[in-house]
């Protein structure tokens, strides 16, 4: 059952969504974080305290109230929201009108760069960045195909003398062409 509470004139569900993918995790976590103050207000209401003391107290109620009062829980949740925020932002950008296949890899690499900045700044020292990098790589490999990498390499801003093509993308494109083009001349012509 979803508890609802009025807080600052707004009725809010204390728990709103179900976690499915990274973008949804962000929305779910952000929803819970946004409900911190209403949840704390709810947890100290007389009717809730009375229910805690009653014989009919729901099994999970004491644990829910313990978590709501736990400052370290909210700190960890804030960290999770901050780490997932770039994924959510770039996911929204990827779903914008007019965005084509050529920007899929670019969006993934933007998330990676943002996380590298966070890691380098030691913004969240408790985050297991090596684990996140491994998960990221597995997801990137699963969700992108050669066509995404080729399309990224053929974007106007990644071709020509002013190319901003990251070395990792170029290496992936080279590997693809090397497999597809058996003749050395065809291979060099494709990359020129």
Automatic annotation (TrEMBL):
It comes from the Eukaryota. InterPro entries: RNaseH-like_sf. This is Transposase. It comes from Metarhizium guizhouense (strain ARSEF 977).
